[in-house]
Amino acid sequence: MAQWYIEGDISKCFDSIDHEKLMEIIEERIADSRFTRLIRKSLKAGYFEFKRFQHSIVGTPQGSIISPILCNIFMNKLDQFVSELKFKFDTGAKARSNPLWTIIQVRKTKTVDPSEKRRLQKLMMNLPSKDLFDPNFKRLVYTRYADDWIIGVRGSREDCVCILNQVGAFLKEELGLTLSPNKTLITNAREDRALFLGTEIFKARHQTFSNKRFGFTQRKNRQCRLEAPLPRVTKKLTEAGFLNGKSTTPKFLWLANDKDTIITLYNAVYRGFINYYSFAMNLGKLSSWIHYILKYSCVKLLASKYKLGSQTAVFKKFGRNLKGTDKVGFVNAIYKIKQWDFKSKEVDTIASLYAETISAASLSNLSCAKCGSTYRVEMHHIKKLRDLNPKARYLDLLPVGAVGPDRPSGNGQKTTKTNPGMFHEGSA
C-alpha cells in the first residue's frame, strides 16, 4: 500500500497545449495527411464565447467534442514517461519483516506460559509485521484523468520529491506544460488526505481484526479508504442555493414548475451526488446529509408555492414522501455502498424539458374530450366563461359541461365528457 501520495494538477492544461507538438504526436500514428490537416484547421479555427470570437493560437477549447480526445492523446506522453519511471523505481519482491516484530514472535513461540504468550501477542499487535522503510522494496502506482493525476509511492519522502521533479521537468521540456504550485502536493497517507477527482484518499486510522485463529486474534492491514469530502459537498449545495449556513433554503428558480417537475429536479440532484459517490466508504453519512438538505429545501419550496405557511402543513397535505395524489414522490435515501459500481438504474427524465414539439396534454397521456383520441392532443385554456359561444361552436359546449354522458351532442348522439378542454387536432 502507498505511504505517500503525489497530487498533480497541470496549470491551464486545455488552454496551454501547443498545437505543433500535438500535431507531431498525432502524425506519429496517423499518416493520412488530409485527416491531420482537418484536425489542424479545427484547432486554428477559433470559437465564439458570448458572441465574441476567440482566436485559438494554443490550446484545445473546453466544450469542444474533440478536446478530451486530443488532450488524452497529448497527455499519453506523460503516461508513457511515468510508466518508464515505474519500471526503474519498483524494486524487490516483498518487504522484509520488521526485526523487532520477528524477535517477539520467536519469544512467543518458545514460551510455554499462557499469560506470557498473551502479553507478547499484544506487543505484536502494536507493531507492523513488515519494515515500512525497507529501502530494497519500493513501489509506484499512477493514474490520470484528463489533466488531474495522482501517484502513490511506497518509499520515502525524498523519493516523492525526486519523482515530482522529474515529472515537472518532463512536462515543461517535452510538452510545454507547468504544474500548478498550489494544487500539486505531497501527502502522507497515514497523517493527511489526498484529494483526487473530488474524493479523499487516505490510510484508515482504525485498526481492524479478524476472527481468532489458533487461539489468537489476527490483525488486518489498514485499508486504503475512499471518502466523499462532506465540507466540499456542503459548499456545492450552498453555492447551488439549497443551503444557507446551517439552514435549508428553497430553490425559488424552480417555483414556476409543477409539483412533479419540482420533486423530479430535486431527486435528480440527489441521485447525481449519490451515483458519483456510490463507492465512498462514508456513503451513509453523505446520503443522509444530502437527503435532509434537499428534502427540506423542497418542502419549503412547496410551502411557498401552495401558500401552506409551514413545513408541517406540507407533510400533512402531501404525506411523508411528498407524493400526495400525484405521480412523483421524493426519492428514498440510499445507504448501501456499491463499490466499483459507478452507475445507476434509475434515471429522472423531465419530458417537458426535451419535448419541444409535444404538448403538455400528450405528455400527461390525456385524451380528446370529443373523440377519445390520444394522438397530437392540444390543451385549450379558457380565460373567461363569458367569452364562450356554445351556439356558434360545438367545442364551446365542452368546457361548460353542456355535453356529457346524458346530454346529446350536435348530431343527436350521446357523448362522454372525459377531459374538458382537451381537443384532438382533427376534431376542432
Description:
It is a single chain. With 428 residues, this protein is of the alpha+beta class. Helix content is 37%, strand content 14%. The protein contains 13 helices and 15 strands. The strands form six sheets. The protein has a four-stranded antiparallel sheet, covered by helices on one side. A three-stranded antiparallel sheet has the order 7-8-11, with no helix packed on it. It has a two-stranded antiparallel ribbon with strand order 2-3. Strand 9 and strand 10 form a beta hairpin. Helix 2 runs antiparallel to helix 3 (33-44) and helix 9 packs antiparallel against helix 10 (283-305). The termini are far apart. The relative contact order is 0.08. Residues 402-421 have low confidence and may be disordered.
